[in-house]
Amino acid sequence: MTDCLLIMTSLPDQDTARSLAHKLLEEKLAACINVMPPMTSIYQWKGEVCEDSEYLLLIKTRQACYAQVETLIRAHHPYQLPEIIATGISHGLPDYLGWIEESTQE
Q1: Residue 105: what pLDDT?
Q2: Where are the beta strands (DSSP E) in the chain?
Q3: pLDDT surpassing 90 at residue 52
Q4: Hey, which family's this protein in (predicted)?
Q5: Confidence of residue 106 (pLDDT cuts 50, 70, 90)
Q6: pTM for this one?
């Protein structure tokens, strides 16, 4: 297992997704963020099945940055209950994983 982490969050539109990505990068909380094209999310919310178009962010960072990433996402996310899911990166190209570690704040 490495110190690297992949965090996912979904947003309602491309402008909001890009804005959040830039904020995370400016704070050196992520090395790279992919803004995925629109996807359809189908979910339960307050007793109803809902369906919306969303943009997924794939945030590459380090475990030590997780709390700050979560705080920044919560502060700038338009949803009452944003999706914030993290998973450890167990394997990857060593040079790429090293770049993630070098590119994020201590």
Answers
A1: 87
A2: 4-11, 32-35, 39-45, 48-62, 85-88
A3: yes
A4: Belongs to the CutA family.
A5: confident
A6: 0.95
Domain boundary assignment for the chain = 4-103
Tokens of 82: 């944003």
What SS3 class is residue 2?
Answer: coil
Spatial separation of the C-alpha atoms in residues 98 and 102, rounded to whole Å: 6
The answer to whether 2 and 94 have CB atoms below 8 angstroms apart is no
The per-residue pLDDT for 44 is 97
Nearest 10 degrees: Cα torsion 13, 18, 24, 28: 160
Confidence (pLDDT) at 62: 98
Residue type for 77, please? H
Q: Kindly write down the DSSP assignment for every residue of 75-96, as one continuous string.
A: HH--SSS---EEEE-----HHH
Domain 4-103 has CATH 3.30.70.120: yes
Give pLDDT tens digits for 33-43.
999 999 999 99
| CA 105 centroid distance within chain | 16
Query: What are residue 62's DSSP bridge partners?
Result: 4
